[in-house]
Amino acid sequence: MKLKNVIYTIAILLVLAVTFFIWRIAPIANGYTAKYLCSLTYTSGLDPLDAQVRYIKPMHLLFRGVVVEMDTAAREVTTRYFGFLRPRIAVWREGCGCTLLVNDTAEELHARHDVPHVGHVNISTDSLNTLWPEGTMANRDSMKGMHNWAAIDNILDKAMKENSDDPTERNNTLAFVVVWKGRIIGERYAEGVDENTSLPGWSAAKSVTSALTGVMVQNHGLDIHAPLGRPEWASDVRKEITIDHLLRMETGLDFDENYTPLANATKMLYASADMGEYAASLTPAARPDQRWVYSSGSSNLLADILYARIGSTPEKMHHLAYDEFFNRLGITTAVFEHDESDAFVGSSYLSMSARDWLRVCKLYMDDGMWNGERILPKGWVKYSLTPTPHAPDACYGAHIWLNAAPDPADRKLPGLPADTYYFKGFQGQWIVGIPSLDIMVARLGVTHKEEGWSPEEVILEVLELVEQK
């Protein structure tokens, strides 16, 4: 009888433990599903059922317990674990993309900060008749002396080919574009995606947040080396933190870039109304400038600072991003999504077409100049692409990944030159520039495989062909 009671007790404790665990992780699973599905459906225009099956549920076994409700008229996504537990809602707004609700209702969010005058810019007739990047036309026949188009096409076809029906094993490449000598020489898109589809870049957004910081320096006199002066930091080493420290991931703040349930990154992205404030509340683990730790918290704190310094309104922030940056580059597909505080989620939530991601990449290839105009301050590109002292193997600059280790064996992309730089994001987002070889590549997709997806092999194959000329 005693043994039976022990077994019953253990069984009850196990049930309680599992119930508690599901209760704790349900908001994260629901939040990720609601936010990502909202963005893929209403920002990217992808099929929501396909997005759930191929891109969201394979993320984690526990995500299979999430039940989705779509309100197409309101452009909202509601998720509940097992159909009833701990619901989360993501809301799409014109010019603002999708926001995951934490404290607000959908009505409060719409009433407080819709920004209807921004978003996709109309494509002019002149743009349609002008070659990329100045316009939208891609015509590689204008490139004299290059005749290996069939071989280039074969490389791209191979890069898009899938070898498995299992969503967790598929590459799920959605867009792939190759630019050589400033012109598109090949591009491929998955079904339902084209050259105007805005696709998530995840952490590739960090590099654009850095570029917007450069615009603030150029146009508004921002000092990246001045201490931030937050009152709550006055009594500890955080008072020394500057924007330069944020850009170089050397703040010393105790942030763990971990996407397990209840980790810093998941709490910030799926349970915080103001993600920058969440990062600012973290305790110091080291003095600034003493160690390099990759941190999405630093990027969202930086986005909060940009928002405050430009005037603390969505309209002024959108003026900075769109009028002073995206529109000047001819970028028409950018959607930088907000949290409830109105700031952009500078770490992760920017969607653009592959072509438009490459426009930003080209800006760095051209030292911050665009059509004879200076977009980024003189010296900004050199600063951004200079390795951060404590970053291992010279892998990181100012919110941009580098391939700068002196020994090729220590590089992330060992077959590519040391001047290679890239904007990189979760699930295999790669926007790569190699100034010495005048080549750029953008790959956007949803790869779940542990080893991920690397652009190196494709780039080397393309280079072997174009360098024959």
Quick gist of this model?
With 469 residues, this protein is α+β, with helices and mostly antiparallel strands. It is built from 14 helices and 15 strands. Strands 6-5-15-14-13-12 form a 6-stranded antiparallel β-sheet, sandwiched between helices. Strands 1-2-3-4 form a 4-stranded antiparallel β-sheet, with helices on both faces.
Q: Provide the gyration radius in Å.
A: 23 Å
C-alpha termini separation: 85 Å
- The coarse silhouette is globular
Structural class: alpha+beta
The helix/strand order is HHEEEEHHHEEEHHHHHHEEHEEHEEEEH
State which percent range the strand residues make up: 15-25%
Tell me the major beta sheet: 6 strands, antiparallel
Which percent bin holds the helix content? 25-40%
Describe this structure in words.
Helix 1 (2-43) packs across helix 8 (264-271) and helix 5 (149-160) packs antiparallel against helix 14. The model has no long low-confidence stretch (mean pLDDT 91). The protein has 14 helices and 15 strands. It is α+β, with helices and mostly antiparallel strands and 469 residues long. The chain is 35% helix and 15% strand. It has a 6-stranded antiparallel sheet with strand order 6-5-15-14-13-12, sandwiched between helices. Strands 1-2-3-4 form a 4-stranded antiparallel sheet, with helices on both faces. A 3-stranded antiparallel sheet has the order 7-9-8.
Which descriptors would you attach to this protein?
469 residues, alpha+beta, six-stranded antiparallel sheet, four-stranded antiparallel sheet, 14 helices
